[in-house]
Specification:
alpha+beta; two-stranded antiparallel ribbon; 4 strands
Amino acid sequence: MKLADLVRRFKNLEALQKEVAAKGEGFEARRITMTRPDGQEIHQMVWVDHGRESKVEQIVDEILAKLPDDQQLRQAILAKLSERILDPDLVDGVTRIEAKQTDEITGKKLG
């Protein structure tokens, strides 16, 4: 298990380094991976432009100020928010493919 985890980390780091080399200077990269309960993974490279970093920090501070003091609730909000931002095919916690399958079964039309 430890070896598999180490291999995964190296692959993620390698992917990050390749993207950074291709993008060039002035950016800082983060690779975000989210695993859904059904095992589906979302992998996304996120770039922080150094010229916009202060604006990003300001918005993060504003969001954090609005969140409750409950750490578990903050993490749940982070998970839902990340899922919605990183997976554009997600609608109300269900992928468009799953929603389409449900639609075909029920005969209901999606809005």
